[in-house]
Amino acid sequence: MSEEITYREAAGAAIHDAMAADPRVFIMGEDVGHYGGTYAVTKGLLETFGPERVRDTPLSESGFTGAGIGAAMGGMRPIVEIMTVNFSLLALDQIVNNAATLRHMSGGQFNVPVVIRMATGAGRQLAAQHSHSLENWYAHVPGLRVLAPATVQDVYSMLAPALEDPDPVILFEHVMLYNRKGTLDRSAAVDLRSAAIRREGRDITLISYGGSLWKTLEAAALLAEDGIEAEVVDLRVLRPLDADTFLSSVRKTRRAVIVDEGWRTGSLAAEISAQIMEEVFWELDAPVGRVCSAEVPIPYPRHLEEAALPQVPAIIAAARAALGKQGEPA
Amino acid sequence: MSEEITYREAAGAAIHDAMAADPRVFIMGEDVGHYGGTYAVTKGLLETFGPERVRDTPLSESGFTGAGIGAAMGGMRPIVEIMTVNFSLLALDQIVNNAATLRHMSGGQFNVPVVIRMATGAGRQLAAQHSHSLENWYAHVPGLRVLAPATVQDVYSMLAPALEDPDPVILFEHVMLYNRKGTLDRSAAVDLRSAAIRREGRDITLISYGGSLWKTLEAAALLAEDGIEAEVVDLRVLRPLDADTFLSSVRKTRRAVIVDEGWRTGSLAAEISAQIMEEVFWELDAPVGRVCSAEVPIPYPRHLEEAALPQVPAIIAAARAALGKQGEPA
Amino acid sequence: MTAGKTEATHPRLTRAHCQHLLQQMIRIRRFEEKCAELYTQEKIRGFLHLYIGEEAIAVGVMDALEADDAVLATYREHGHALARGLPMNKVMAEMYGKRDGSSGGRGGSMHIFDAEKRFVGGNAIVGGGLPLAVGLALADRMQGRERVTTCFFGEGAAAEGEFHESMNLATLWKLPVLFVCENNFYAMGTRLDLSESETDIHAKAASYRMPSEAVDGMNIVEVEAAARRAVATVRAGDGPYFLECRTYRFRAHSMFDPQLYRSKDEVKEREKKGPIVRFQGWVLDAGILHQADIDAIEADVAQEIDAAVAFAEASEWEAIETLLDHVGAVP
Amino acid sequence: MTAGKTEATHPRLTRAHCQHLLQQMIRIRRFEEKCAELYTQEKIRGFLHLYIGEEAIAVGVMDALEADDAVLATYREHGHALARGLPMNKVMAEMYGKRDGSSGGRGGSMHIFDAEKRFVGGNAIVGGGLPLAVGLALADRMQGRERVTTCFFGEGAAAEGEFHESMNLATLWKLPVLFVCENNFYAMGTRLDLSESETDIHAKAASYRMPSEAVDGMNIVEVEAAARRAVATVRAGDGPYFLECRTYRFRAHSMFDPQLYRSKDEVKEREKKGPIVRFQGWVLDAGILHQADIDAIEADVAQEIDAAVAFAEASEWEAIETLLDHVGAVP
Ligand SMILES: Cc1ncc(C[n+]2csc(CCOP(=O)(O)OP(=O)(O)O)c2C)c(N)n1
Ligand SMILES: Cc1ncc(C[n+]2csc(CCOP(=O)(O)OP(=O)(O)O)c2C)c(N)n1
Ligand SMILES: [Mg+2]
Ligand SMILES: [Mg+2]
């Protein structure tokens, strides 16, 4: 029962199927309807479900995100689309001060079953205001669940349980994944707790998520040509982190590199590194490495954008450094 | 020439002296004028400098922060006061997408010499929407300089160089420091690059900043009673981090604990831990520990609030664990 | 609450109804005074924003609502909570931060919630409740329920972007929201004319095509009548309504406020026209109530407050082991 | 630009002035057409938002400004940049992302800046430039300079909270800002009536007590006259002014837009009333310009564009070693 489709199609199918299955589910956001979705994920939904359930909003990120939170409290199951994480800066008050805290502040009386989807990441030459990877900002906040599906299967299969979650879920879709093809089995279930081992290996653990996963797998394949067997962990769930999975892997391989498109300082990669330090320090054979974005607003020209982001050669170099195959990491 | 004053008074004096010294300097924000400042920092400034330069704003965090950024580009040297970091969520678009990026996007043609002050932290039983410590969010963003003065001297002395900085500076004042007394020498200068060693020691390095510094020093004093000499590093500048100072210290002591009021996951403490891992792994005698806030929106009652925040006993326990004086850290 | 309130948009000023209105206002007034006292005793901590002087608004508006309507308010919401019918015991225990408080003690004075009464909080972010109100109303609309969502906020909130976005969304989507602006002419220490280029707040509704009205928020009869008309319009499906109630805060903004921004005389002048003194004088003059009735109300209220304090005092603190509860359903 | 423009609020439609206006509009039109072509050749990347159909606004307004006034625009700002007098070579090189681009190549099509022309960018956050404009004007006011800051934005931006906050601040503080709303009736694919409860955008200014006016943005003469009046008011120190220019975007929102939300007929209908075809027709009919003049303009422009493309092609890429430049003054 599996099909070969793009990440974009899988994301759209997930929304379609969720709306077909539950009348409480609806989607709202800028241009989700008549335009067909900025990244064409929601194309066709307006025709199927009508403008009440495929609700175009004005440019009012704080307003409609808050309205989604309120609608969730009122018994609906809203999917709020914030076009991109860059614009979510305008909605953070609602997400952090309301969605993430209402259950706690009310002593458990109210809960916020909203799903907030947003595109994230760079690679399309959209420059400094359209290329953020702020996953760690969200992963920092208690009360939120944060997902970063990297595969066609995950972007499809994570939505239904996200909508069943009684608490707010942030779902990141990396812009460079939309055109990526993969295999989808609509009946397969995924949980929202576990990281996934995308490749087994014994020599080193490479930990990544979202758009960087594929670069990491590419690096692993190239390392394998040199006889280095890297295990690749896809975090998938950025909050709460599935530490068991990455820690077990590092216990086995004794070496790790984290690949994360966030700016290096203050990144989620730092958190993973710190947890490895805390839990498996005595079993490490080398310091844990990080491959992150350079500390610069993302520049427009392709060669500079590429230089700013984590790339395969840097991942390979970091892995080799951790394996002591060459000097210190650059 | 030194005086004994409160942190609040020192912060106010810094603003006063900066305004007296440079007509381009002015302060704007909610209730900085007629009310006298939420935390009474700006009390008396309106009478001295008038309503043009001590400018009460409407409740419009994004609007007046953006206006501060624009005024800085227009040749002024604005001090924008956002009452507390909690409300800065409403201004993040202006801070991240404009202040931090305009220089880069314009190829260096424009710069934004603004100083944005805000109160931060918990401890006053203000509950879930008024107790955030989001320092790592800001420390994550290239283009910003982030300061966290913990002493009377620093809160006074950092403002003038912050105003001289041609780029945006975020200045955090921990709410629990305002009533704290200390010695001020108005003629002493500080740079905006260096961390400070607040206590020398050979056994372990405790790294902290802002409100947590004092708890850390208290813990160090108690440890000393047991013959453990902790070195205490006050980061002071959260971006760019002065890694040299804390790394040298850890090289010497071979053990470290970081104390940070941010929620543990995704905290600045993780970044420090990761950098220590990367740079001095081979010299470490124990994994680096972290004492952070519990992963919960801060609750109102005192006993729960205290339980949620880093406290002296937890710092001591973490230090002892790193020294192998007892089992594993909890 | 009084009978037949949804039918009649004009409440009849029967003896029973007048008694009810006055009692509710006095309940809030005395409760708030008690809280101020408890604050100085350090029983109540954090910020504390008293509603003293503004009681006619919460009482007048709440009377126009049904049990399944939703209510959102600010950090100055103890009055609204009481007027909405939350048990005073639970509200007081919440002020203390005790386990039996309306939010289990975790919220404190700024975060009083009650799911059963559809009291959707206390919100300490100025303007932060407005988008939530839009969403709650949207849920009602999409689920075919004829409920009204009422959102209280100060005139200071009108400057926030979230106000603008919420006003537009509510009107654009014809949602059943009653926006109640409690215009007390100050946002902390900032006088209205220092924060708004257009100080006639209700006039702003026009730029969203939202019907609106301004009333004397010190006159409970006027507030109630206007609220009933407004609620009827909203419930009829005609979209949102904006009700500005002009009032005045008799006390400091919060317990930290030295009130440098206004004179004592200004406050005194306003106090003379306070909602309780005025209504009480009127019902006495008109012979609807007598001094004995008022004494009875005061005695009732004093008893209720004593009981609430005793309840809060007796209530337990939450165990520290529960610290991580209520972060999410799945721990 | 034409002489005497600050004195006269009505520009005289001399032959020279008409030639200038037409030439500027045609320059922008042809430049944008070229960019579309270069986009398909992958010379220009990222998003690309063409100004085709809206040229009368930038040209008409810019003519009313002085050299030391500031201008802020959106991601659809190449037209504004050209109208403001940025050299086409540098604008084109920026579209390529080359070192000689107006922002050194780092900004691309959405971030064209020029300090010398006080062209404060290209801003790709809808509404994000509005608070900056308020601040630039505030700096002028505080430093006693009689400059005007003009901020262009789309009607979609009017729904953002930052719009509301900026409108209030500018009027409250009587700042010299000219707000120019380019109402093209769509925000990406969202039609105005799906995003605003009050679709008469300029009417919103009233709720801030800001004077305002709506003009036919397809009529350059009307735009210029209105802009001159508006700038004169603002420069006189009477505070901000809101000018809504009603227009239409002839092309897709960006190069990714399949335009599902409007019909080809609708676009065709509007194109007939385009700013260039109308003005050109009028100057020809009126005998102010002749076909030969127009041919000369087109030839001029074609040459300028060819030169700009050659310049951009010849310009170098920034060295990768400079990646971390321009993050801060202190590296
Ligand atoms: C977004 C935000 N900014 C600032 C504050 C701090 N603050 C709390 S109440 C208040 C004044 C609000 O005034 P108004 O809306 O008129 O309500 P009032 O207190 O007068 O009832 C301010 C500035 C806040 N809580 N939230
Ligand atoms: C804050 C923000 N939200 C969303 C977007 C995505 N976006 C870019 S342009 C646009 C439409 C803007 O419409 P309008 O303001 O009318 O300007 P126009 O493009 O029509 O000139 C949108 C939604 C953005 N850039 N910034
Ligand atoms: Mg007020
Ligand atoms: Mg538009």
Comma- or semicolon-separated keywords:
heterotetramer; A: 330 residues; Rossmann fold; seven-stranded mixed sheet; five-stranded mixed sheet; 22% strand; globular; C: 331 residues; five-stranded parallel sheet; 42% helix; binds thiamine diphosphate
Q: Could you describe the 3D structure shown?
A:
The complex is a heterotetramer, with two copies of chain A (330 residues) and two copies of chain C (331 residues). Chain A is globular. In chain A, α3 packs parallel to α4 (92-99) and α10 (243-253) packs across α11. Helix content of chain A is 37%, strand content 22%. In chain A, the strands form three sheets. Chain A has a seven-stranded mixed beta sheet with strand order 3-2-4-5-7-6-12, sandwiched between helices. Chain A has a five-stranded mixed beta sheet with strand order 9-11-10-13-14, sandwiched between helices. In chain A, strands 1-8 form a two-stranded antiparallel ribbon. Chain A has helices at residues 7-21, 45-53, 61-73, 92-99, 102-105, 135-139, 152-157, 159-164, 212-225, 243-253, 268-280, 302-308, 312-322; strands at residues 2-6, 25-29, 54-56, 77-84, 115-120, 145-147, 169-174, 181-185, 196-199, 204-208, 230-234, 237-239, 256-263, 289-293. With 331 residues, chain C is α/β, with parallel strands linked by helices. Chain C has a single domain, classed as 3-Layer(aba) Sandwich (Rossmann fold). Chain C has eleven helices and seven strands. In chain C, the strands form two sheets. Chain C has a five-stranded parallel beta sheet, with helices on both faces. Chain C has a two-stranded antiparallel sheet with strand order 4-5. In chain C, α1 (15-40) runs antiparallel to α10 and α2 runs parallel beside α8. Chain C is globular. Chains in contact: A-B, A-C, A-D, B-C, B-D, C-D. Chains A and D meet through α3 and α12 of A and β5 of D. The structure holds thiamine diphosphate (2 copies) and magnesium ion (2 copies). One thiamine diphosphate sits between chains C (76, 124-126, 153-157, 182, 184, 186-188, 253) and B (30, 59, 83, 87, 90).
